[in-house]
Design a protein that fits this description.
By secondary structure, this protein is mainly α. The protein contains two helices and no strands. It has two domains: 37 residues; 44 residues. The protein is flat, with a radius of gyration of 21 Å.
């Protein structure tokens, strides 16, 4: 253990650069494979290229938006709640 940390791989800029490059390379390969792989869609929108990526992104946006609304309406308390 150096500097009181157990794992410092992600702290180095050159490592993060290679991780980003790897991430985007995998992302590009997956999008290109979407044009090649034969699909068996149940709904018409599933046949579109990148449909599952868009669906996943929109699902995450909805989850974040709903959780923010739930947090504001039900979970957050006023600053002087415990006084």
């Amino acid at each position: 253990m150096r500097d009181g940390k157990e794992f410092t791989y992600f702290d180095k800029k050159e490592n993060m650069r290679w991780i980003k490059i790897l991430f985007f390379a995998v992302l590009i390969v997956l999008v290109l494979l979407d044009f090649v792989v034969k699909k068996h869609p149940h709904y018409s929108w599933e046949a579109l290229p990148g449909a599952y990526a868009v669906y996943g992104f929109l699902s995450c946006v909805v989850i974040v938006a709903v959780s923010k609304v739930i947090g504001k309406l039900f979970l957050q308390r006023k600053e002087d709640y415990y006084d």
